[in-house]
Amino acid sequence: MELIAGPMRLRLAPALGGAICGWWRDDVALLRETPPGCPDVRDHASFPLIPFSNRIAHGRFSFGGQDFTLPRDPRDPRHALHGNALYAAWEVGAATTSEALLRLVYRSGTPFFPFAYTAWQRYRLTAAGLTIGLAVRNDDARPFPSGLGHHLYFPRAADTRLRFQAAGHWRTGPDGLPTTRSTAHQAEFAAGAALAGLAFDNAFFGWHRQADITYPAGRYALHLRASPALAHAVLFTPPARAFFAFEPVSHAVDAINRQAMRVLGPGEALTAVIRCQWRHLPV
Question: Residue 251: which domain range?
Answer without folding.
Answer: 2-280
